Amino acid sequence: MEQKRPATIHQVARLAGVSHTTVSRYLQDAESLKPKTRIKVEFAVKTLDYRPNLVARSMRTRRTNRLAIVLASGPHFPGRLLAAATETAHRAGYQVEVVSVEGGSRARSARIEDLARSGAVEGILAISPTGLKSRKLRQVPIVESETYDDKLRGLGELAEATEVVEIVEYLASLGHRSFFHVAGDQDFASARNRKAVYLEAIERLGLRSIGVYDGDWTAQSGYDAIAALAGDCGVTAVVAANDVVAMGVVRAARERGWSVPDDLSVFGWDDEVMGKFATPSLSTVAVDREAQGRDAILRLLAEIRDEPAPKAAERGINRLIFRESTGPAPAV
After folding, report:
1. What architecture does CATH give domain 156-287?
2. Domain ranges within the chain, ordered by starting residue
3. DSSP string of 20-49?
4. In whole angstroms, how large is the CA radius of gyration of the chain?
5. Is 3.40.50.300 the CATH classification of the domain at 62-152?
6. Which of 24, 196, 293, 309 is the most buried (most CB within 10 A)?
7. Over the stretch 107-151, which tens digit does the pLDDT of each residue have?
8. Are 316 and 160 contacting, i.e. CB atoms less than 8 angstroms apart?
């Protein structure tokens, strides 16, 4: 059976009784046509099941008003970053397709090549490593931020831990001398870095570390870490891997009869909403993931427009927030 050839824009124009340029206008901005004309063209498009040749259109105009964001497939979906990136693209007049790819960097690079070849997008942002050496494929700009790894675990700024030094120094300024760290899953670069920086800061400042508990980012690990401490360990300050862990720390401390922050100060990380409204509210590190999404899209738009790359932000994405869970060390 002979396969039916796809309809052309000229066939649509003849059926609608308009010029092919009018059909083209309809495809780019239907609202720009008069209602009667728009209805006729819409009827013809649906009747003939017309599908624009995106490759041909892209070759002529280089405009599809669509971007793609490619990332690894994993359990830790970067919702805040993607929401900010998408909003930034929308404000610039672009639609966004988020493409989650199973497999490693080769699979992602192959998917990016497919997207570039399709003519459906004007630019591609990769937030997981791809191994691509070119910044452009078939004239489609590609920006790699490499914010996440193959399992969507944070890299780059998300894995930096210099703020741990500030946390330890701040708590030391309040008189704390005996510290404890409840770490995150050590498969994460961020958890490894925070643990390493904590130990370095404790040693450099001449403070005492009761120890490090290798947790898994859960409240249960924070709870278990505190529950396992000896009653006479002398700890007065806990640096938790994240706010969820910190919540577990606070719960276990209370069940042991330790008041937070009168007996034990607790510092978290991530500035989760629940931490702001907890009792006590959590001191924490706010992470501006939205800025990462905005900046990455702006870099991609600059590539598309052949403009200079936007100036990098002078300050990092992390910022300490001091709340009720930290206070002066208890009097001896």
Report:
1. 3-Layer(aba) Sandwich (3.40)
2. 9-52, 62-152, 156-287
3. HHHHHHHHH-GGGS-HHHHHHHHHHHHHTT
4. 27
5. no
6. 293
7. 999 999 999 988 889 999 999 999 887 788 778 999 998 899 999
8. yes
3-state secondary structure of 167: helix
Integer CA distances (angstroms), 189 to 1, 147, 159, 160, 215, in order: 57, 12, 6, 8, 14
Q: How many Cα atoms occupy the beta-carbon half-sphere of 302 within 13 Å? A: 13
* 12-70 tens-digit pLDDT: 999 999 988 888 777 755 666 888 898 999 899 889 888 765 445 544 445 788 999 99
Q: For residue 40, which of 12, 6, 20 has the smallest C-alpha distance?
A: 12
- Model confidence pLDDT, tens digit, residues 206-217: 999 999 999 999
Q: Identify any residues that bridge with 101 across adjacent strands, giving them in sequence order.
A: 72
- Could you tell me how far CA 116 lies from the centroid of its own chain? 23
Quick one: three-class SS letters along 251-284?
Answer: HHHHHCCCCCCCCCEEECCECCHHHHHCCCCCEE
